[in-house]
């Protein structure tokens, strides 16, 4: 093989759309946000879970990014943990602010949603690709990549 496989990191996950979320969760999220959901954008294709992840436009003009999963999915607990940890991070760690969370039950499933500030960003491509950003240069100086193995 000639190196690692090429992966399109912008299309790594098949995620459900807003309409597939139970009405009880949609309602709980609207209540937690304090306004109606005016429009749901398309689910993102990046990431490594099958949980819901999409931008929402709210009736009051705000935009948020929401992730949600039911308790049969791995991200259910991961999203809860994110909601616990992110608000405790120091200000120097630049992450989107957690706006609110919502819980709901539908049939036999428990649901959890986390809404964060929407930022205009996208996945930057393959991990490990060289970049010219100041952060990448500083990181490389502090933690240089391992030397290639002798063949």
From TrEMBL:
It comes from the Bacteria. Residues 122-151 are annotated as: Disordered. This is Phosphotransferase family enzyme. It comes from Kribbella caucasensis.
């Amino acid at each position: 093989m000639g190196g690692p496989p090429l992966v399109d990191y912008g299309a790594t996950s098949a995620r459900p759309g807003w309409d597939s979320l139970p009405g009880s969760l949609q309602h709980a999220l609207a209540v937690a946000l304090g306004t109606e959901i005016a429009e749901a954008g398309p689910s993102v294709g990046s990431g490594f879970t099958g949980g819901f992840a999409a931008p929402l436009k709210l009736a009051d003009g705000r935009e948020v990014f929401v992730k949600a999963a039911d308790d049969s999915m791995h991200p259910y607990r991961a999203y809860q943990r994110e909601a616990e940890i992110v608000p405790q991070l120091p200000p120097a760690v630049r992450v989107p602010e957690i706006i609110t969370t919502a819980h709901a039950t539908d049939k036999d499933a428990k649901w959890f949603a986390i809404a964060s500030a929407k930022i205009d960003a996208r996945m930057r491509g393959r991990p490990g690709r060289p970049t010219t950003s100041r952060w990448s240069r500083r990181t490389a100086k502090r933690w240089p990549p391992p030397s290639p193995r002798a063949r």
